[in-house]
Amino acid sequence: MTTLQRAFGRIPWGYTLRRLLIAIPTMLAIITVAFLMMRAAPGGPFDGERKLPPATEAAIAAKFGLDKPLHEQYFNYVAGVAQGDFGPSYKTLGKSVNDLISDGLPISMTIGALTMLVALTVGTSLGIFAGLRQNTAADYGVMGFAMFGISVPTFVTGPILILLLSLGAGIFAVGGLGTWPNIGMSWHNMTLPVLTLALPQIAIISRLMRASMIETMRANHIRTARAKGLAERDVIVRHALPSALLPLVSYAGPAMAGVMTGSVVIEKIFGLPGLGSYFVDGALNRDYTLVMGAIIVYAALIIVLNLVADILYAMLDPKVKYD
Questions:
Q1: Where are the domains of the chain?
Q2: Residue 96 backbone dihedrals phi, psi, to 5 degrees
Q3: Per-residue pLDDT, 125
Q4: Model pTM greater than 0.85?
Q5: Which domain of life is it from (predicted)?
Q6: What is the mean pLDDT of the chain?
Q7: What is the maximal distance between C-alpha atoms in the chain?
Q8: String of DSSP letters for 218-270
């Protein structure tokens, strides 16, 4: 039996099925709370400085079903979501919420995936480096950098990077996705948003990895490996790293969800048309369906990524059993 087959056999299928079934009422509760909160918020999607004639307001409300009782609007919306239809956008004429999510989600997911790739690579390397040099100048240097990364919020880091590397050095774009014909998610536009989001994640992961590495290097199986005469490099790579990486697996899932939701601020700072920007614009304009669609997508991502992290943890550690 290969390693892949053994890992596949460790997937807790019963636990996975239960988590997926629990996700249904969880999502329903999220939709219900979000729906009621949006309708309880002051103002409406068609309120403006200039008052519309009553007949026009009535016609618009009838077109979008807003003239029906609240409970009827709720059940109609839930029925639509169950069929994958998030409804029309009240503010972006000619486009449905599905269209807007299709436009913005790839940008948010690209930022999130690149951020986690950078954070995991750099943070893990720094954590291992510091953990193997505990209480040395190198260890203190890495932990000082980590404290800086955790302490400075992204809404401060982003503008500073723009000032230094965009307006000052002119290396990267200030924001947006570029102009025609150089439009797109190029390194010129994506580097600063990814760096801004990755910095606190690098700090957290390096601290987590350092602590895990120090604890693992003191474990009995490491002493046994050394007693067998294995080279220190083999002890670290073959015996210490697999155990030390386990806490990182359980952190990566929720962290990815956090990065996706954290990109709401970053997308506004850098002017990126991602799902976070649509969410903020929808909330400001009382575009009920757009906000609801963004909330549902984010909630689904959080549930799925947490489940994936739990399954990976069980696959990598045979001692983990889910009842």
A1: 104-278
A2: -90, 165
A3: 95
A4: no
A5: Bacteria
A6: 85
A7: 87
A8: TSHHHHHHHHTT--HHHIIIIIIHHHHTHHHHHHHHHHHHHHHHHHHHHHHHT
Residue 241 has pLDDT above 70, yes or no: yes
Contact 195, 161 (CB under 8 A): yes
Rounded Cα–Cα distance for residues 315 and 321 (Å): 10
pLDDT at 7 over 80: no
Helix (H, G, I), strand (E, B) or coil at 87: coil
Per DSSP, 323 falls in state: -
First to last CA, the chain: 25
CA dihedral over 32, 277, 259, 15, signed as positive or negative: positive
For the residues 53-62, what does the mean pLDDT come to?
80
CA dist list (Å): 221 to 98, 127, 236, 316: 52, 21, 11, 17
Token digits for 195?
């760096």
Distance CA 255, CA 28 (A): 24
What's the fold here for domain 104-278?
MetI-like fold (1.10.3720)
- Number of C-alpha atoms within 13 angstroms, CB side, residue 3? 2
Q: Is residue 117 very low, low, confident or very high in pLDDT (cuts 50, 70, 90)? A: very high
181-193 burial, b if ≥16 CB within 10 A, otherwise e? eeeebeeebbbbb
Say which residue the tokens 């509760």 belong to: 29
**Dihedrals phi, psi of 180, to nearest 5 degrees:** -60, 135
Q: By C-alpha distance, which of 86, 99, 101, 90 is closest to 64?
A: 90
The pLDDT, as a whole number, for residue 63 is 82
State the average pLDDT over residues 255-260.
79
Q: Which of 216, 214, 243, 238 is nearest to 228 (CA)?
A: 238
Q: pLDDT confidence of 121, banded at 50, 70, 90?
A: very high
Those residues whose C-beta lies under 8 Å from the C-beta of residue 318, and which sit 6 or more positions away, are 10
Q: Cα–Cα–Cα angle for 205, 208, 210, nearest 5°?
A: 105
